Amino acid sequence: MASHRRPKQPSRTRVTVLTTAAAAAVAFSAQAANAAPSEKPSKDEVKSKVDKLYEEAEKATETYNGAKEKQDKLEKQISTLQDKVARGQDELNQLREGIGTMASAQYRTGSIDPSLQLFLSSNPDDYLDKASTLDQLSSQQVEALKKIQEKQRELAQERQEASDKLKDLAATRTELGKKKQEVQGKLAAAQKLLNSLTAQEKAALAAEQSRASRASERNVLSGDTGSASNRAAAAFSAAQSRLGSPYVYGATGPSSFDCSGLTSWAYAQAGVSIPRTSQEQANIGTRIYSVNDLKVGDLVFFFNDIHHVGLYAGNGQILHAPRTGTVVRYESMNTIGGPFMFGVRV
Length: 346
Prior knowledge:
With 346 residues, the protein is an alpha+beta fold. It has helices at 12-34, 43-108, 114-120, 131-136, 139-195, 199-222, 230-240, 259-269, 278-281; strands at residues 286-288, 299-302, 308-314, 317-320, 329-332, 340-345.
């Protein structure tokens, strides 16, 4: 006989859950369908983000430059110390040979001094500290032993100094590598943003920069061109000769520059050696806090951490290497992107 059992009905709870899930799915689909597509950032938004990345890259660049300069100095100091240690070791060997000659002469006569024999068979570092020993040596032997002791101490000190500097060098190289990666990361991010622009937008940005640079040049030509000194005039003239040269982080010329690379190179052409980084350059010469007191060729510094420097060009304009993607050019002090802090007259 066939069964007429009713099929099992789903529970009320299960129906409620399924209904709720289905409603949520429909609502989500509706929201997704009605959601506005993500908008492409405008040219001005891209420029603002790129400028910020370039500023951060330049800040890291000045730290990189400082680490690079420290590395170069340490390498020279270590090389000098290693040469001194090598020469000192040669001198020590000669002194020891002299003592050996004395011992040989005494041995041939059958009267080698017991104290000298002890010296030749042990480390003399604390040997001369024993007063009784001095009484047993001739004045010539005492003098030779003192020289050996002094040379040994000198060598130990120089070796320790070289060892400390080698450790410092290793730490500096690590810092240098990190800052290089940071700069490259910022520049890559900026380039990615620029690549998102159309050819027309890129052309518009380039045209804006060109117009601003030409306007700054006209202001320079129409302003007061009095220089702070003959050296400042010569440095400014040298920098002018590099107008149009590309900005490259870590570069010091003569074909490419970063900001402090341009100023240090320009003053070097005038026969004046100034430090490599903007922060170090800020600590030389006489500080000038009023724009009205600046003269052509004065160094001018921007941002609270002093990570940008240029040369004052007169009439509120500067000549500088702005950032990656630009060239050495004139620019208004009002468009640098950071506050003017002070000038320095070298």
